[in-house]
Amino acid sequence: MLQVKNLTVSIGEKQILDNLNFTFEKGKVYAIMGPNGSGKSTLAASIMGHPLYSISPKSKIIFNDVEIQEEESYKRSKKGIFLSFQSPLTLSGVNIFQLLRVALDGKMEPLALKNKLKDLAKELKIKEELISRSLNDGFSGGEKKKMEVMQAAIMEPSFLMLDEIDTGVDIDSLKTIAEFISEMKNNDRTIVIITHYNRILKYVSPDEVLIIINGKIASQGSAELAQKIETKGYGWIE
Amino acid sequence: MTKTKDSQNIDFDYKYGFSMPDTSVVRIPKGINEEVVRQISALKNEPEWMTDIRVKSYQIFLEKQMPEWGADLSAINFDEITYFARATKDQSSSWEDLPAEIKETYDKIGVPEAERNFLAGVSAQYDSEVVYESFSKELNKIGVIFCDMDTALQKYPEIVKEYFTTLIPPHDNKFAALNTATWSGGSFVYVPKGVHVKLPLQAYFRINSERFGQFERTLIIAEEDSQVHYIEGCTAPIYTTDSLHAAVVEIFVKPRAKVRYTTVQNWSNNVYNLVTKRAKAEDHALMEWIDCNIGSKVTMKYPSVYLVGDYARGEVLSIAYAGANQHQDAGAKMMHMAPHTSSRIVSKSISKAGGRTSYRGLITVTPAATDSQVYVSCDALLLDETSRSDTYPYMKIKNNEVEVQHEATVEKIGEEKLFYLMSRGIERSAAEGMLVNGFIEPVTKEIPFEYSIELNRLINLEMAGSVG
User: Which of B256, B53, B60, B259 is nearest to B166 (CA)?
Assistant: First the structure.
């Protein structure tokens, strides 16, 4: 489904990802863990096409057999890649409904979209009025993350990356979000969960766990690896 | 397109926008002198007192210096401007009677549709005089007068004489003097005591003749306890030589009356838009200016409110957009002259592609204005490194019992926000448009829906136009 080849990424002079190689398969759930600053978010942002991250000429990102490393983010999005942001941005004067109307580019009737958003708000246990307020303006941590998964649910990506969807979220919201993500699982959708904690993985069990340290994949394994990280930390990994 | 016989002599080679052949019938040679001023007055069969005001104002225009403190006006050549042209010989009484070209121009900007949908009355200006005007019967029934200024001068000379130049005298500034000497068209609105005009009154203005300056003059009188909302929307075709638009708007808001004046200005990028707008608010009156400046080469405009009565309130909500080669020098003036008066200024400016915006504000609180409140908020948004924004917030507070709040921000449109939107499948230009429209939303939510939609679309077009 999505393959990164020789992925070397830097911000300014600082290299963050170091010749990373990996293939994400269709329909699987991945957890990416690692210490702060190890390059987890950089991997997600590079796949999404963040303009401030420069990738080396040898790097390739191949999505459904097409090289996309040169494409602008919006094109990657249209191909089915979605990134739920670690720190969702506040948009003054733009609400989620307006954002999605433009994002969907006429693929859904405005009224149908509005109704869908109302249903999702109920499902995610947030106030309906948040739909028509400036996105994330004064929202709680949990509400912000819920707005992210709400957008994902509407846009129905085939490659869904969730960058620390579980941080800054209270325990009830975490459960709601985790169950919501669990329901988004299907055979055609790859889900990548970037996290520091095992708790979300109790709801959405990963098929594979990757540990990134210093810009490289230091270890990979099954769901047990995540549990081991939680109890033992990263020190034991070579 | 069918041409009228008058339109054959004009060469029109327009590369951008839309534009119609010039059908002007009466046209005074370009340039200005006392004879031109007298000729304009004579062509309109004006009373002698008006001719005298014009001639006196022309002398003041000659004596007054060009304003040096604001935008660069050095390229204006007063000798290259046509001061009067008449589009059709008589005002058409109905839409069907209008010449085909003029109708087509209006079709393109949607006058008939707008009229059908929500207009109470249309006063559409083509060249320097109103050629089409329709009154709803409702307006007449409740005693509201809404017509062009030339008609008002003929039909209601005593009202015009009572108010004309009493708020903005010709010596106020060089361009007010020029307007007073050469004015044509503009709107006249009179709302009797206690009358609430439910629907907005609208006028459409255009400059549609090369080297043709437009000097409309608007006078609005809202008697005690009355309410009215006036809207002017300006769009103009693009021309190859510089144009000047120097309008004057005087508004009288009597005790407990409420007037809102909304402008959506999109002059083409060769127009000098130099407008003097002032309102006088009496006891418990409310004056609101909503001023959106998108187009023009240079705009200098500072809508002002003289708060002369106890508890009078004044408000200016403004948007200024400056793209390449544009300078929007806009702001507001509030003069507190009575106790318990309050003023509120909200200014949003956007600069892109080397464009320049300046907020220029003057708040004066006189010793008499005890217990007054002042609120100023000006936010600037810069879309790139080459653009510029300046803030000149002058305050003269001569009373200690005044509450003053002033906030100013300058922000750059962030790559992070753009990336966020682009990661949702939104193209860069559309993402920029979305962020800019979000930025001005506190003002656009105050203007009628049809206009805010048009404004949002204009912003999106501007964002799309200068990418790459």
Answer: B53
CA–CA separation, A234 and A211 (whole Å)? 9
Of B417, B437, B440, nearest to A89 by CB-CB distance is: B417
**B423/A77 CB distance under 8 A:** yes
Task: Report long-range pairs for A124-132 (Cβ below 8 Å, ≥24 apart).
Answer: A124/A149, A124/A150, A124/A176, A124/A177, A124/A180, A125/A172, A125/A173, A125/A176, A130/A96, A131/A95, A131/A96, A131/A97, A132/A95, A132/A97
State pLDDT tens for residues B180-224: 999 988 889 999 999 999 878 876 544 444 334 488 899 999 999
What's residue B262's pLDDT? 93
The sign of the torsion formed by the CA atoms of B106, B107, B110, B115 equals positive
- For an interface test with A, the pick among B377, B413, B419, B428 (most A C-beta atoms closer than 10 Å) comes out as B419
- Model confidence at B7, pLDDT cuts 50, 70, 90, reads very low
Q: Do A89 and B438 touch (CB under 8 A)?
A: no
DSSP B18-50: -------SEEPPSS--HHHHHHHHHHTT--HHH
Does A98 sit within 8 Å of B423, measured CB to CB? no
Query: Are the beta carbons of B442 and A105 separated by less than 8 Å?
Result: no
Q: What is the pTM of this model?
A: 0.81
Listed by start position, the domains of chain B span 5-301, 415-468
Q: Is the pLDDT of residue B3 over 60?
A: no
Judged against a pLDDT cut of 70, whether residue B431 lies above it is answered with yes
Q: Is any Cβ of chain A less than 8 angstroms from the Cβ of B452?
A: no
- Taking the C-alpha atoms of residue B317 and residue B233, their distance in angstroms, rounded to an integer, is 16
Domains by residue range for chain A, with CATH: 2-87+156-232 (3.40.50.300)
A-contacting residues in B 410-429 (Cβ below 8 Å):
414-417, 419-428
What pLDDT, on the 0 to 100 scale, is given for residue A57? 94
